[in-house]
Amino acid sequence: MFELIKIRKARRLAHATIAPFLQRDPGACVTLQAGDWLQPQIIGFLATLVTLLAQRHCGPMRNDALAAVQSEVLNTVTGIGQELIGAEICLLSSREDPAFTTGAHGAVAFVEALRPRSQLDDIESVPIPDYATLLRLWEEHVDHCLRRGAAYG
Question: What is the pLDDT of residues 5-64, one digit of tens each?
Protein backbone atom coordinates (compact mmCIF):
# COMPACT_ATOMS: atom_id res chain seq x y z
CA MET A 1 0.00 0.00 0.00
CA PHE A 2 2.79 2.44 0.89
CA GLU A 3 4.52 1.64 -2.39
CA LEU A 4 1.42 2.75 -4.32
CA ILE A 5 1.45 6.05 -2.47
CA LYS A 6 5.13 6.49 -3.33
CA ILE A 7 4.45 5.70 -7.00
CA ARG A 8 1.68 8.28 -7.17
CA LYS A 9 3.77 10.94 -5.42
CA ALA A 10 6.79 10.21 -7.64
CA ARG A 11 4.67 10.48 -10.81
CA ARG A 12 3.22 13.83 -9.76
CA LEU A 13 6.66 15.18 -8.81
CA ALA A 14 8.24 14.06 -12.09
CA HIS A 15 5.40 15.58 -14.13
CA ALA A 16 5.65 18.85 -12.20
CA THR A 17 9.42 18.97 -12.80
CA ILE A 18 9.30 18.12 -16.50
CA ALA A 19 6.17 20.04 -17.57
CA PRO A 20 7.68 23.56 -17.57
CA PHE A 21 10.40 22.45 -19.98
CA LEU A 22 7.87 20.85 -22.32
CA GLN A 23 5.58 23.89 -22.29
CA ARG A 24 8.05 26.76 -22.39
CA ASP A 25 7.94 27.35 -26.16
CA PRO A 26 5.30 25.24 -27.87
CA GLY A 27 5.75 26.87 -31.26
CA ALA A 28 9.47 26.16 -31.49
CA CYS A 29 9.15 22.63 -32.87
CA VAL A 30 6.95 20.95 -35.38
CA THR A 31 4.35 18.60 -33.97
CA LEU A 32 6.21 15.72 -32.42
CA GLN A 33 5.29 12.09 -32.90
CA ALA A 34 6.00 9.32 -30.39
CA GLY A 35 8.81 7.98 -32.60
CA ASP A 36 10.65 11.32 -32.43
CA TRP A 37 11.29 10.63 -28.74
CA LEU A 38 12.80 7.17 -29.38
CA GLN A 39 16.37 8.38 -29.23
CA PRO A 40 18.75 6.80 -26.72
CA GLN A 41 19.98 10.11 -25.28
CA ILE A 42 16.46 11.38 -24.65
CA ILE A 43 15.34 8.08 -23.14
CA GLY A 44 18.43 7.92 -20.93
CA PHE A 45 17.93 11.48 -19.76
CA LEU A 46 14.21 11.20 -19.02
CA ALA A 47 14.31 7.73 -17.47
CA THR A 48 17.20 8.64 -15.20
CA LEU A 49 15.65 11.99 -14.31
CA VAL A 50 12.39 10.33 -13.27
CA THR A 51 14.26 7.70 -11.25
CA LEU A 52 16.44 10.22 -9.45
CA LEU A 53 13.50 12.46 -8.62
CA ALA A 54 11.50 9.51 -7.32
CA GLN A 55 14.32 8.20 -5.15
CA ARG A 56 15.35 11.59 -3.85
CA HIS A 57 11.88 12.74 -2.85
CA CYS A 58 10.02 9.50 -2.15
CA GLY A 59 12.75 7.36 -0.63
CA PRO A 60 13.79 3.86 -1.61
CA MET A 61 11.45 2.06 -3.99
CA ARG A 62 11.39 -1.45 -5.39
CA ASN A 63 12.52 -1.91 -8.99
CA ASP A 64 9.01 -2.66 -10.23
CA ALA A 65 7.70 0.50 -8.57
CA LEU A 66 10.43 2.62 -10.19
CA ALA A 67 9.72 0.96 -13.54
CA ALA A 68 6.03 1.81 -13.17
CA VAL A 69 6.85 5.45 -12.45
CA GLN A 70 9.28 5.64 -15.38
CA SER A 71 6.95 4.02 -17.89
CA GLU A 72 3.91 6.07 -16.86
CA VAL A 73 5.72 9.42 -16.88
CA LEU A 74 7.57 8.73 -20.13
CA ASN A 75 4.34 7.53 -21.74
CA THR A 76 2.66 10.80 -20.79
CA VAL A 77 5.58 12.93 -22.00
CA THR A 78 6.41 11.06 -25.21
CA GLY A 79 3.29 9.14 -26.20
CA ILE A 80 5.34 5.94 -26.41
CA GLY A 81 3.49 2.91 -25.02
CA GLN A 82 4.51 1.84 -21.53
CA GLU A 83 5.66 -1.62 -22.61
CA LEU A 84 7.77 -0.24 -25.45
CA ILE A 85 9.40 2.45 -23.34
CA GLY A 86 10.19 -0.10 -20.63
CA ALA A 87 11.73 -2.44 -23.19
CA GLU A 88 13.78 0.41 -24.69
CA ILE A 89 15.12 1.43 -21.28
CA CYS A 90 16.12 -2.17 -20.48
CA LEU A 91 17.69 -2.74 -23.90
CA LEU A 92 19.67 0.51 -24.00
CA SER A 93 20.81 0.13 -20.41
CA SER A 94 21.91 -3.49 -20.81
CA ARG A 95 23.78 -2.66 -24.03
CA GLU A 96 25.47 0.27 -22.26
CA ASP A 97 24.54 2.45 -25.22
CA PRO A 98 26.84 5.52 -25.18
CA ALA A 99 24.06 7.99 -26.06
CA PHE A 100 21.80 6.52 -23.36
CA THR A 101 24.65 6.87 -20.86
CA THR A 102 25.25 10.47 -21.95
CA GLY A 103 21.58 11.22 -21.33
CA ALA A 104 21.73 9.53 -17.91
CA HIS A 105 24.75 11.64 -16.91
CA GLY A 106 22.90 14.74 -18.08
CA ALA A 107 19.97 13.83 -15.81
CA VAL A 108 22.31 13.53 -12.82
CA ALA A 109 23.62 17.04 -13.54
CA PHE A 110 20.04 18.28 -14.01
CA VAL A 111 18.92 16.97 -10.61
CA GLU A 112 22.02 18.42 -8.97
CA ALA A 113 21.25 21.85 -10.49
CA LEU A 114 17.62 21.48 -9.43
CA ARG A 115 18.53 20.95 -5.81
CA PRO A 116 22.20 20.48 -4.93
CA ARG A 117 22.95 17.49 -2.74
CA SER A 118 24.68 19.71 -0.17
CA GLN A 119 21.37 21.47 0.45
CA LEU A 120 19.14 18.39 0.70
CA ASP A 121 19.28 18.09 4.46
CA ASP A 122 19.32 21.79 5.26
CA ILE A 123 15.71 22.49 6.17
CA GLU A 124 16.46 26.13 6.98
CA SER A 125 17.37 27.11 3.45
CA VAL A 126 15.28 26.74 0.34
CA PRO A 127 17.69 26.28 -2.56
CA ILE A 128 17.14 28.33 -5.67
CA PRO A 129 17.46 26.13 -8.74
CA ASP A 130 20.03 27.13 -11.33
CA TYR A 131 17.51 27.66 -14.17
CA ALA A 132 20.16 28.56 -16.73
CA THR A 133 21.90 25.23 -16.12
CA LEU A 134 18.59 23.35 -16.11
CA LEU A 135 17.58 24.88 -19.43
CA ARG A 136 21.00 24.21 -20.98
CA LEU A 137 20.89 20.56 -19.90
CA TRP A 138 17.32 20.11 -21.15
CA GLU A 139 18.20 21.67 -24.51
CA GLU A 140 21.35 19.56 -24.81
CA HIS A 141 19.76 16.23 -23.95
CA VAL A 142 16.18 16.64 -25.20
CA ASP A 143 15.53 19.61 -27.51
CA HIS A 144 18.73 19.20 -29.51
CA CYS A 145 18.05 15.50 -30.06
CA LEU A 146 14.44 16.18 -31.04
CA ARG A 147 15.52 18.80 -33.59
CA ARG A 148 18.20 16.49 -34.95
CA GLY A 149 15.71 13.61 -35.17
CA ALA A 150 13.10 15.77 -36.92
CA ALA A 151 15.70 16.83 -39.49
CA TYR A 152 16.32 13.18 -40.41
CA GLY A 153 12.71 12.02 -40.02
Answer: 899 999 999 999 999 898 865 445 556 777 888 999 999 999 999 999 999 888 889 999
Instruction: Please state the domain count of the chain.
Output: 1
pTM of the model: 0.84
Q: Is residue 53 part of a domain?
A: yes
Q: Is residue 25 part of a domain?
A: no
Answer for the pair 145, 45: CB distance below 8 angstroms, yes or no: no
Domain containing residue 63: 2-20+32-152
Task: Give DSSP secondary structure letters for 65-88.
Answer: HHHHHHHHHHHHHH---HHHHHHH
Average pLDDT over residues 91-115: 94
Task: Share the mean pLDDT of the chain.
Answer: 84
